[in-house]
UniProtKB/TrEMBL annotation:
The lineage of its organism: Bacteria, Bacillati, Actinomycetota, Actinomycetes, Kitasatosporales. Residues 1-11, 364-375, 492-503 have a biased composition (Basic and acidic residues). Keywords: DNA-binding. This is DNA-binding protein. Pfam families: Helicase_C_3, WYL. InterPro entries: WYL_dom (IPR026881), XPB/Ssl2_N (IPR032830).
């Protein structure tokens, strides 16, 4: 038996419910919970009863959201119902989707699709009376100004609604139909003619070739065309026979019935009941994929750490409008040795992970306002807010800098640090690829600036990884088929037939990251989001050589941060992060505690170094190249930097002996000794500034050098020279002349120059901008269904006739109200009460009073499904339940 026959046999012969509310009321709790799970916007707030739930499910905003979350075939079925008679039978819907010739794939997929539309409360009614929700029909049906998404226009009845009866009769005559007595029967006769495939074909046999060409251009939409006051003969032939009907002056339309006949009964040119399969572009060994992903994950950690290290003493200034300037982004890209769009991605990732922020406070102030008051009723301000306000008033520039969380992140094992970054990347809505583009007001979007949130980004990112996870380990997907699958799962609804899609990425072609996208082009945005998700996953090490790694599959676990976990510590607060880190850890090399010194004044680190060694070597030498192995170069300047930091030559020699697997080259020993011998020979202090040296000949050499003219030096003593420049300028000038001066304190001691780490006050990472309310959990769904059922039972319980106050509330005198609720408390019966709360909102409640005392009545509220207490002076009146409700009263 076919799926279509099973669907028809499984439906009742009765006409079904009379309204959407009745259809929802007849559902069981599991079905009602499935509706609330698929449309979580209906839960905010929880509906009081089924009638309110049905009303909310039919609002424009909710229906729009529900339509946007349908797959392509489900949307095609809804579009077909919008142009079908209301109500339509299942067979009529099948005919519109499968056409006159039938389609087995459509027939097999349609029962499940109709069930999906029913589950989401977009379709209701019996087998022979399928009804699309009125709001959905209004959104998808054609109008006088635009066609349906199917490309169909209005029906004959709709297009001729303003036409004169004489004109309609003339059309009947030209089409070979007999005259009728009224316009209604004339329209019905013309509709029947156009709906008959054989009669339409017979009518078109005598049509001019140009007329048939016009119909061919209009048949699949858009069905509207322009005509002049004196149309050509081939257009006049169509107008005379009603195959083109006027809508507005100068505009004509092909009526829906005629278009369907010319289409062979199909509402869509190409129905798509089957989801496209993601093709495999390449196959690799899973071990190779994991190894490549592990190496890329390590490179990602090094890049983020280098970024934060470069901003350790204070990063770039914050623009007045927020964000990073183009010049600072270029500088950051130069430091990281990556293109600017890629540098923007790393900056945004560190920001999303809570590792960098503005040190002034106002950029993130809207995040912190929920956690602490800027100023309470007593004028209290916390120290951070006061400091930020003082800086703004003084005009002091605000800068980006690492947050205190950076120090905690840096001390974690590499795998945990990577998991921390991924926990920020996967749900993040900030989209770095947009940087450099324009927003809706034609303003340039900057890194760390406003306007970068795109709510579809997390869904696209996660879905890309889920589709990759459906392939076998080691298989890399074809980007074009991946994008087509996403388009099928989330088609973009439009006012007309589906337009030409942007060119998808081709297999083997690696698109460039970034580049922006037009603010008003959602299809181009989704294409870019897909490309960016693939590129970002590769840069982060979620994928390796285009295939999903084993730790990338674990990243798709359903568990997120546990309750009570710190906002800035996803690695510690997420069970998923713990699993991912455990899978990644074996793929990362163990940090090394040694380097290889070479005779050309370089040191080679054949892998990642332990933190103390990396930090000390970063001061003593300059990084010359990075990759699988890092090359450091020793220069007089780098050695002087280490001596300025307080190291002695003896300590430097011991450090190199301890950490080198090769003998220390003699040129490096000579370099350290030579720089150390000259280091501190000159002493610079603050008078304005001065230079002192025990070797008078050195001062003679400085005074004789013409490059010292700008320093305005003057000899005060044989071993002391004063300058008219500040100490920093004096030191830089002497170093430019080839000397190695050292700064000294007021007591004459050498001052050690250590970098000062600058941190922002505690910051909360930017919260993602969700695409609608979050999906409810099982506990919330159970409680919501229970509340809706209880409210519905209470709302449908009949009551005796009683005088009503405005708004339909029962109205009785205070004495009658008190007497009735006291009697109900003694007998255990339920009563209707009208209640007005402190805000003036009125409601009716079905209450079973338990006790009445102190001006209050306490009882079981069947409407809220809980025990509540109401003030008697806020009760407008009481009505007893009708006798037929006895025995049907909800149990307490």
């Amino acid at each position: 038996m076919s799926a279509e026959q099973q669907h028809r046999d499984g439906q009742a012969a009765d006409p079904g419910p009379r309204s959407l509310a009745q259809a929802l009321r007849e559902r069981d709790d599991a079905s009602l919970g499935a509706l609330l799970r698929s449309r979580p916007d209906l839960l905010h707030p929880v509906p009081t009863d089924v009638t309110q739930l049905a009303t909310r499910a039919g609002t424009r905003a909710s229906v729009l959201r529900a339509l946007e979350h349908l797959d392509r075939f489900a949307l095609q079925a809804a579009e077909a119902l919008a142009v079908a008679p209301d109500p339509a039978s299942y067979q009529e819907l099948l005919d519109l989707l499968a056409g006159d010739d039938g389609d087995e794939e459509v027939a097999g997929a349609l029962p499940a699709t109709v069930a999906l539309l029913r589950e989401r409360a977009l379709v209701w009614g019996g087998e022979d009376r399928l009804r699309l929700v009125r709001t959905a029909r209004e959104l998808l049906a054609p109008s006088a100004s635009h066609s349906s998404p199917t490309g169909l226009g209005p029906s004959v009845a709709e297009a001729t609604s303003g036409m004169s009866p004489g004109r309609i009769q003339a059309i009947l005559t030209a089409a070979g139909l007999p005259h009728t007595h009224d316009a209604v029967s004339a329209v019905a006769a013309l509709s029947a003619l156009f709906a008959d495939r054989a009669r339409v074909a017979e009518l078109l046999e005598g049509a001019p070739e140009a007329s048939r060409e016009v119909l061919g251009r209009l048949v699949w939409g858009p069905p509207y065309g322009q005509v002049t006051a004196e149309p050509a003969a081939h257009l006049r032939w169509l107008l005379d026979r009603g195959l083109l009907l006027p809508t507005t002056p100068g505009t004509v339309v092909l009526p829906r019935e005629a278009a369907l006949s010319l289409r062979g009964g199909r509402a869509h040119r190409v129905p798509e009941p089957t989801r496209p399969q993601v093709a495999v572009a390449a196959e690799r060994k899973p071990q190779v994929v994991d190894a490549a992903a592990g190496g890329q994950a390590l490179a990602a950690l090094d890049t983020v750490e280098e970024l934060l290290r470069s901003w350790d003493e204070g990063g770039p200034a914050v623009l007045r409008a927020g964000g990073l300037s183009i010049r600072d982004l270029k500088r950051t890209a130069t430091v990281l040795e990556v293109p600017e769009p890629v540098a923007a991605f790393w900056v945004e990732l560190a920001y999303a992970a809570g590792l960098i922020a503005s040190d002034g406070g106002y950029v993130e102030e809207h995040h912190d306002r929920h956690d602490r008051p800027d100023a309470d009723a007593e004028g209290y301000e916390d120290e951070e807010t006061r400091d930020a306000r003082t800086r703004r008033r003084s005009g002091e520039a605000e800068h980006y800098a690492p947050t205190p969380e950076y120090d905690a992140w840096r001390d974690l094992p590499p795998a945990d640090r990577w998991a921390w970054l991924l926990e920020a990347w996967l749900p993040g809505t900030r989209t770095p690829g947009l940087i450099g583009g324009r927003d809706g007001r034609d303003r340039t979007l900057s890194a760390l600036g406003p306007g970068l949130d795109r709510s579809p980004a997390p869904e696209v990112r996660r879905r890309v990884l889920e589709l990759m996870a459906e392939l076998e380990p080691g298989q890399a997907p074809d980007p074009a088929t991946l994008l087509e699958r996403l388009r099928w799962e989330r088609p973009l609804r439009s006012a007309g037939p589906r337009r030409e899609q942007p060119e998808p990425p081709r297999a083997g072609v690696r698109p460039a990251y970034g580049g922006g996208v037009a603010a008003n082009d959602p299809e181009a945005l989704r294409t870019k989001l897909t490309e960016w998700a693939l590129l970002e996953a590769e840069m982060l090490g979620v994928t390796g050589r285009g295939a999903l790694a084993s730790h990338g599959r674990a990243l798709l676990g359903t568990e997120g941060r546990s309750e009570g976990a710190g906002a800035g510590a996803p690695a510690a607060g997420s069970a998923r992060a713990t699993v991912v880190a455990a899978l990644l850890a074996p793929l990362l090399p163990e940090p090394l505690d040694h380097v290889l010194l070479q005779a050309d004044l370089t040191a080679v680190a054949p892998g990642p170094l332990v933190r103390p060694l990396a930090e000390a070597l970063g001061v003593l030498a300059d990084v010359e190249s990075k990759g699988g192995a890092t090359v450091y170069r020793f220069t007089p300047g780098s050695v002087r930097r280490a001596l300025d930091a307080g190291r002695t030559a003896t300590e430097l020699h011991a450090f190199l002996d301890r950490h080198s697997r090769t003998p220390v080259p003699q040129p490096l020993t000579y370099l350290i000794d030579d720089v150390a011998r000259r280091h501190g020979l000159l002493r610079v202090g603050a008078a304005s500034s001065y230079v002192r040296c025990d070797d008078e000949s050195v001062l003679d050499e400085i005074l004789a050098d013409r490059r010292a003219t700008a320093l305005r030096l003057r000899r005060l003593a044989p071993t002391v020279v004063a300058a008219q420049a500040d100490p920093r300028t004096l030191i830089e000038g002497l170093r430019a002349m080839g000397f190695a001066p050292a700064a000294e304190s007021a007591e004459g001691d050498v001052m050690i120059a250590r970098p000062h780490a600058h941190r922002t006050p505690p910051r909360t990472p930017p919260a993602p901008v969700p695409d609608g309310p979050p999906a409810p959990d099982a506990t919330l769904l159970t409680a919501a269904v229970r509340a809706v059922r209880a409210g519905d039972r209470a709302a449908t319980a009949p009551r005796k006739d009683t005088p009503e106050a405005p708004g339909g509330l029962p109205r009785t005198s205070p004495a009658d109200t008190l007497a009735t609720v006291q009697a109900a408390a003694m007998t255990g019966e339920s009563v209707w009460i009208g209640h007005v709360n402190a805000e003036g909102a009125a409601s009716q409640r079905l209450l079973a009073p338990l006790r009445v005392e102190g001006g209050y009545v306490t009882g079981y509220d069947h409407t809220a499904d809980e025990v509540r207490t109401y003030a008697l002076h806020r009760i407008t009146g009481v009505a007893e339940l009708a006798e037929e409700a006895d025995g049907a009263e909800p149990a307490r």
